[in-house]
User: Which sequence fits this backbone?
């Protein structure tokens, strides 16, 4: 039987859309490219949801207002956002958290410590994999059907509507003619050739933190047919991750949180950016792009013993040495240049008595061309530790342009039965940069909107 609604993708946004549509009485089929053990896209690797709230809400303490949330977003995007859609996502997030709990998601008690997120971000008990599994269980109870290893190859656009959906499964080509389609199949980051076309050859050195199944097939198909696009193909959520991470699917555990307490150098042992620019959840996403601009797209973190326990432990142990020279040798860095860089940095450090690892402390260097504006302490206490950094791409921002109903368009004309949610349309709000937990907010808010609108259309 042909479903009322086909949802393309199997992550958070797709599941929120599918559950919402099913609750409105629609028959829903999810087409998930991945095999069942790898279902859930990048959502498997997530940890938290950024949420506006007036007063304590669930695991969140105090309050986090719409204006403060928007200011945080404007800071990381440099103002490159659709403010109306951003406000919609922010404002809707408050009602999403109890909705998520009602649909099976469990949250950890509020966090304290290095992340400073107890007020802004609710963390999933068991991480993103638990969230995904909870949603699949709820979706099944609601009658949502799921086809795994179902790779959508084409959506046929006729005038202002999608006439059919083609996909392959078990080596067979299949076709569906649903009343409505929701695209929630992510960006194109797992297609290294597409990344290289956008970024240049340097992109071949990038690591892909998320699923290898987000190759942008549906996105490319719709853009080629004239569906309105948004975003810059060179913009993405990219963070600096452990250089020893796998090419694909290393996930969130490959992230390194040590940058604020370090100096970061390139292969010539030269610093290239202020490591203490802001608290880590707001600034960590700039480091992927910074590393991408360095020779061979690699950077190196240098810390000493007194900083080792100030950040979340890494999945791979750091390189350790008793002297800076030995550390340089072990990391393949020029020994004399690293020693000089560290000595120059140390000499520029002043009074460190106000050092405070979880907030902007103003403990800064003086006289350096590239300052360190917070957490600047001399690197003097052996043993010394190092990590290599590579650019880890989470998702790309080129996507489908949507309105406040999550509906896609050709020019200014809506496609009558096509909606988009999640990373596929996140470029509408994220012009550049990233705010921790905001991808899940976008997926949840616009997944619910898309599900509601598609179900209304189908009925």
Assistant:
């Amino acid at each position: 039987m042909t479903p009322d609604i086909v949802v393309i993708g199997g992550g958070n946004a797709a599941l929120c859309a599918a559950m919402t549509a099913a609750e409105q009485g629609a028959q829903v089929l999810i087409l998930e490219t991945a095999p069942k053990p790898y279902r859930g896209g990048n959502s498997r690797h997530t940890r938290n949801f950024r949420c506006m709230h007036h007063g304590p809400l669930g695991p969140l303490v105090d309050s986090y207002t719409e204006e403060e949330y928007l200011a945080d977003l404007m800071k990381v995007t440099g103002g490159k956002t659709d403010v109306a859609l951003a406000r919609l996502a922010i404002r809707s997030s408050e009602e999403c958290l109890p909705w998520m709990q009602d649909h099976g998601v469990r949250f950890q008690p509020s966090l304290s410590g290095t992340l400073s997120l107890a007020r802004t971000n609710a963390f999933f008990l068991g991480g993103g994999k638990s969230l995904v599994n909870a949603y699949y269980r709820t979706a099944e109870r609601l009658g949502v059907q799921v086809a795994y290893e179902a790779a959508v190859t084409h959506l046929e656009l006729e005038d202002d509507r999608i006439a059919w959906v083609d996909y392959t499964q078990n080596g067979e080509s299949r076709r569906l003619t649903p009343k409505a389609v929701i695209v929630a199949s992510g960006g194109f980051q797992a297609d290294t050739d597409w990344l290289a076309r956008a970024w240049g050859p340097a992109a071949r050195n990038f690591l892909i933190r998320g699923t290898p199944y987000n190759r942008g097939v549906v996105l490319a198909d719709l853009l080629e047919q004239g569906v309105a696009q948004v975003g810059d193909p060179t913009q993405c959520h990219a963070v600096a991750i452990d250089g020893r991470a796998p090419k694909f699917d290393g996930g969130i555990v490959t992230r390194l949180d040590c940058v604020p307490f370090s100096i970061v150098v390139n292969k010539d042992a030269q610093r290239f950016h202020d490591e203490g620019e802001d608290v880590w959840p707001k600034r960590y996403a700039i480091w992927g792009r910074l590393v991408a601009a360095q020779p061979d797209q690699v950077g190196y973190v240098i810390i000493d013993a007194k900083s080792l326990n100030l950040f979340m432990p890494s999945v791979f142990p750091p390189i350790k040495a008793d002297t800076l020279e030995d550390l340089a040798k072990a990391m393949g860095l020029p020994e004399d240049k690293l020693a000089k860089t560290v000595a120059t940095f140390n000499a520029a450090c002043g009074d460190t008595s106000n050092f405070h690892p979880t907030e902007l402390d103003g403990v800064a260097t003086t006289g350096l061309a590239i300052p360190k504006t917070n957490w600047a302490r001399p690197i003097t206490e052996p043993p010394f530790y190092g990590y290599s950094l590579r650019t880890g791409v989470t998702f790309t921002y080129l996507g489908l342009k949507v309105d406040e109903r999550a509906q896609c368009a050709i020019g200014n004309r809506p496609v009558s039965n096509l909606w988009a949610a999640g990373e596929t349309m996140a470029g509408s709000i994220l012009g550049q940069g990233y705010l921790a937990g905001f991808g899940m907010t976008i997926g949840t808010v616009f997944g619910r909107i898309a599900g509601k609108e598609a179900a209304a259309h189908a009925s």
Q: What stands out?
A: The radius of gyration is 23 Å.
